[in-house]
Inverse folding.
């Protein structure tokens, strides 16, 4: 415990699921947290659960709006100084194949997952570089960012984009001492997947399809995210770490 002591971390998509789990794990490791999400009520609940307002700042933020991500970065600097870390957890999904994906759904998933990752990273990384902070950034890709998934063409496109952005951001920022990596979760029990896993028969099929025999839990992803933020991962640059119970290992 204490591997992030004295450091501040911005987490987007912080109000639930893997984002909230990451906040809680980073907080337990001593970090001060800037939690960002569109869901203000969820942020308020999260802050209450953490229980130490001196180490938590909540900032309702739409990551698709560059002005709001700039304001998020400014708020973080004002409260805790230049951030050491950023976790781009904000994301949405959409259903649809190449034949029938709704154009509005396509644009929305790209705006949140791709533009949002770019907007927030650019705002925070500029401040890190200007201040000489040798920090760490972790993006959320997906198992759908390293292989295809039927009937998810928009989501897959967005997550492949995040994977590619991670590699390139890592090359852009490594000379400044800022490490960029990503996690690529498989099927994890979150509010996004609850509708699939709440059905007992469907959950049985999903679990059976995982090499490990079950879906993941948010804290299992958060553990890897926080590791990538810490000095224990000091030589990890441009890695996309699959945490998926073996799903992408092969057939």
């Amino acid at each position: 415990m204490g591997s992030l002591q004295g450091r501040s971390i911005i987490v987007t998509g912080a109000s639930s699921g893997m984002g909230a789990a990451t906040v809680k794990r980073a907080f337990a490791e001593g970090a001060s947290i800037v939690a960002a999400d569109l869901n203000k009520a969820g942020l308020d609940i999260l802050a209450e659960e953490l229980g130490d307002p001196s180490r938590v700042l909540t900032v309702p933020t739409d990551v698709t709006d560059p002005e709001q991500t700039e304001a998020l970065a400014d708020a973080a600097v004002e409260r805790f100084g230049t951030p050491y870390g950023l976790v781009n957890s904000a994301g949405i999904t959409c259903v649809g194949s190449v034949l029938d994906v709704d154009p509005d759904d396509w644009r929305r998933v790209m705006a949140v997952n791709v533009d949002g990752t770019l907007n927030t990273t650019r705002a925070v990384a500029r401040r890190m570089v200007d201040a000489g902070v040798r920090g760490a950034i972790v993006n959320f890709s997906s198992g759908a960012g390293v292989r295809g998934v039927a009937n998810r063409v928009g989501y897959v496109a967005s997550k492949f984009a995040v994977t590619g952005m991670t590699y390139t951001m890592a090359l852009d920022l490594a000379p400044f001492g800022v490490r960029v990596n990503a996690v690529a979760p498989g099927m994890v029990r979150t509010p996004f997947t609850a509708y699939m896993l709440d059905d007992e028969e469907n959950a049985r099929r999903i679990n059976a399809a995982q090499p490990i025999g079950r879906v993941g839990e948010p804290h299992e992803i958060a553990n890897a995210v926080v590791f990538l933020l810490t000095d224990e991962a000091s030589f990890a640059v441009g890695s996309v770490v699959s945490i998926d119970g073996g799903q992408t290992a092969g057939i």
Summary: The CA atoms of residues 35 and 58 lie 5 Å apart.
